[in-house]
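New to this. Please check this protein:
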Amino acid sequence: MRILLAEDEKELSNALVTFLQRSGFSVDAVYNGGDALDYLEADNYDGVILDIMMPKVDGLTVLKRLREKRNRIPVLMLTAKSEVDDRVLGLDSGANDYLTKPFAMKELIARLRAMTRNTECSGDNLLTIGNMTLDRSTFILSTQKAQIRLMGKEFQMMELLLLNPNQLISAERFLERIWGYDTQAEISVVWVYISYLRRRLTTVGANVQIKSVRNSGYTLEVIS
């Protein structure tokens, strides 16, 4: 799951990025509302964390512009303000949820998961194909024979494959969704992680495979 974080306090932003990544999210971080709007033009995110007080364009204005464009992406607002009127204004402007600083990181993750889960077709933490299931809350990939906990980027790639069964996902899309637009990683890193995931599937005895289509991408398919 890919999140855009718009927070101008760089120390807080860095801490949030680290915690979100450890919790299984892919994150792009920006430090002002103008950049947030630019990044959101790509329509490549599952949710947004918006600080209200930001330079160039404030968070409420970013939110209003999104909703004016009928963009229904889930938005969690962050602010140092605690007055009821500020919370009401954010929610009335189209925010899905609201957190007042300071907040507990675990609460942020719980609210973010609940917010994005409400917009997903599955509405469930469990993704299944063939005899294999991925638990999105624990990162556990399992069959009736065995189970294994996936690491961060392994989990994110498997989640993307499971959310798009029998659909080709290009290496470039993996790189953008999981490593981010500003990554210095080479495209070969995707091939390395695909190799890791194939080993994980073998380890748990899954009856699915990651099939590669030359010059096109990868797809997750049940082995007939």
